[in-house]
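Q: Here's a chain of 214 amino acids. Please give me its 3D structure as tokens.
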Amino acid sequence: MKYLIKDIETRLGKTIRRNTLSIGFDVAEICTGIAVLRTSGVHLYIEKLDVVNTKKVDKSIIDKMEYFLKVLVKIRDSIDLNNHFSVIVIEDSFLLVFKNKFGKMSYNPWTFKMLTRFGALVYVVFRKIAKYIYYVQPTRARALVGFKKSKVKGVKIKKQVLDFVNTLFTLELKNDDKADAIVLAVNGLLKKEFVNEIVKPKKRRKSKSKKTDS
């Protein structure tokens, strides 16, 4: 899929980095969405949209991790960098706390563990080809591309993100994991806003000890 960068910039109201490869990973316990976006001097390309489904690996956590790892390596090895500036953007994991059916606060440690481990595997596999790798919370990633905050949550907000992406790129996607991955990949293409988000911390200057007369 091919677009004029200027058209996407107009819809976003933001500047896109040219000659850049950006890969977004919507890391999930079962279905991880992956989007590979590339820009030239004039065009933006959606080169690949994929979903890694670990549900069919009905075994231990380690077996799921091994399967996930093999798929990531296969995807990495299929990508042609073509001397492009490369950015990897991974959805950061977070511990979701919610009210259960008894009205008490609860959370799912299993899901949190899987998200954290899968996110780490993405980092390990893609650090060989990436100039920069960043983790970003989903709410922040959506805000940076201009998605308006909504009061709805869960499945409903994912549907809104899907509609947002379909409008932005004139697509007819039905998979919200791919849509979320596109949002993350677009973050990596932003020339100003996202770069400001991930400025590397400055090294602390060593304080010079004052000399005292003995």
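Q: Can you summarize the key feature?
A: The chain has a mean pLDDT of 85.
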